[in-house]
Amino acid sequence: MAGRYFLLMRKVFVLPDKPRIFFKQIWVEMEKLGLSSISIVTVISFFMGTVITIQTALNFVNPLLPKFYIGLVARDSILLEFSSTVIALILAGKIGSNIASEIGSMRITEQIDAMEMMGVNSANYLILPKVVAAVIFNPLLTVLSMFIGILGGAFIVSVTQIIMFADFIQGIQIYFIPFYVTYGVVKMMVFSVIITTIPAFYGYYARGGSLDVGRSGTLSIVTSCVFILLFNLILTQLMLT
Question: Are the C-beta atoms of 75 and 172 separated by less than 8 Å?
C-alpha cells in the first residue's frame, strides 16, 4: 500500500505538460475545495472559541492568578491546536470525501483509463492542482479560524460577563508569540498535503461500483485523520521543543 502511494506521488509531483491549463485548474480547485469551506470553518471556529473561553473560565478557580490569564489560555489554545489540527480534521472529512468520490467515480467510469490512452498523465492532471490549491488556500482558512475563534471568545465574554471584558482583551494581547501563528500555518500546509493526496490515492485505485467508491472515501478519511494526528505530534516535537 505504501509503495503504491509513493509510486503514485512520483507521477503526481512532476512538471505539468500544459502549465496554462494547470494554473487554470488551480483556481477551479481553490473555489471548489477552499472557498466552499469558508462557511463551515467560520461557524465552527466561532462556537469553538466561545466554548474554549467558557471552559477555561470555569476551570480557572485559583484566586491568586489574574483573570487575564483566561484570555491568554484561550488564545494560545486556538492558535496552537484548534485552528490547525481540529480544522484540518474537519477539512479531511469535507475535502477528502469530495476528492475520493470525484476521482473514484472517474476511475470506475473509465475516464482515467481514457486519459492514459491519450497519453495524459492522469495523476498529475487530476491530483496536483488539488494539492497546490489546498496548500495555498487552507493556511488562509487557518488564519481566518484563529481570528474568528478569538472573536467568538470575546463575544461570549461580552454577553455573559463571565470575566471582565477588559481582562479578556488584556489576556489575548499579553505575552503574544507571533511564532504560534507561523506554527499553525506550517502545520496546515503539511496537513493539506495529507488531506488531498491520501483521498486521491484511494480514489485513484478504486475498483468495483459506487459502493466501493463510498468505502474508499470512508477509508481515506479515517487514514487521513490518523496521519494528521501523527504529523501533529511530529511537527510539535520539531517546532516547539
Answer: yes
Whether 211 is covered by a domain: the verdict is yes
Neighbour tally for 120: CB within 10 Å: 15
Grid coordinates standing for 116?
492514459
Other C-beta atoms lying within 10 Å of the C-beta of residue 100: 28
- Nearest one of 71, 27, 66 to 174, comparing CA atoms: 71
Cα gap 184→202, rounded to integer Å: 27
The low-confidence residues of the chain, meaning pLDDT below 70, are none
Angle at the Cα of 233 (from 229 to 239), degrees rounded to 5? 135
Nearest to 37 by CA among 127, 139, 123: 139
Condensed to tens digits (0 to 9), the pLDDT of residues 59-105 reads 887 777 788 899 999 999 999 999 999 999 999 999 988 899 889 88
> Is 123 a member of any domain?
yes
* Alpha-carbon span 96 to 195, nearest angstrom: 6
* Number of domains observed in the structure of the chain: 1
Domain that holds residue 135: 18-240
Q: What residues contact 84, with CB distance under 8 A and at least 6 apart?
A: 142, 183, 184, 185, 187, 188, 191, 232
Measure the CA–CA gap between 222 and 212, rounded to whole angstroms: 15
Q: Average pLDDT, whole number, for the chain?
A: 90
Closest of 134, 111, 114 to residue 199, by C-alpha: 134
Produce one character per residue of 14-53: b if its CB has 16 or more CB atoms within 10 Å, e if not.
eeeeeeeebeebbeebbebbbeebeeebbebbbebbbbbb
